[in-house]
Write a structure and sequence with these properties.
Layout lengths: L7 E2 L2 H9 L9 H8 L7 E11 H12 L3 H5 L3 E4 L9 E6 L2 E13 L2 E8 L5 E12 L2 E12 L2 H6 L1 H18 L4
Parallel strand pairs: 1-3
Antiparallel strand pairs: 2-8, 3-4, 4-5, 5-6, 6-7, 7-8
């Protein structure tokens, strides 16, 4: 497989347009709360999965750096343009996967010695309506990715896709995890 292309910077005009857009769901930030309370809001499809990324400090540093610079997304096959090439709260990002346009805004960031991650929420035009989080964790020697999300269809096409859309979401999560693993 060819190397993923790097994330690009959004134009200032596009950044300002996305920053004016409201989130397409409430409550905003509940993926962060999940890590403390283990609960997502009702009325949404819930996704929660863990993936082993490897062992040791090198695996953690690689996964965290890749995650926090959009490399997980580009490594999973997306084209990414963002207001910042490093994830931080408030950054807007426009991902594309084939014909899908996937606009989001980062709602929280986790920056701890053994946990790095973020959650972002959907903006108008996103196929889903909700929030997704990605946390890379080092527990002793073990390095894992936890992906959590609550969502419901945001466009007619995703409503019509039904369970096929959920399958697509699970496949993307596997691609995300693969993108964070150290390649031999």
């Amino acid at each position: 497989m060819a190397s993923p292309r790097a994330a690009a910077r959004l134009s200032e005009e596009r950044v300002q347009a996305l920053r004016r857009e409201p989130f397409t769901y409430t409550p905003v930030g509940a993926t962060r709360a999940w890590h403390e309370t283990r609960g997502y809001p009702s009325g949404f499809h819930h996704l929660h999965s863990h993936h082993d990324l490897g062992r040791g400090d090198d695996a953690f540093r690689h996964a965290a750096a890749t995650l926090m610079t959009w490399g997980m997304h580009t490594g999973a096959g997306m084209r990414v343009a963002a207001s910042s090439l490093r994830v931080s709260e408030g950054v807007v990002v426009l991902c594309r996967l084939g014909p899908l346009r996937i606009p989001c805004r980062v709602v929280w960031v986790l920056d701890e010695p053994d946990r790095q991650g973020f959650g972002y929420g959907t903006l108008p035009g996103h196929p889903e309506s909700g929030e997704e989080s990605f946390v890379v964790r080092r527990d002793g020697d073990r390095v894992t990715l936890t992906v959590g999300a609550y969502s419901r269809p945001g466009l007619l096409v995703t409503r019509l896709a039904g369970s096929a859309g959920r399958l697509g979401q699970r496949l993307m999560v596997r691609r995300y995890a693969a993108a964070l693993r150290v390649k031999d």
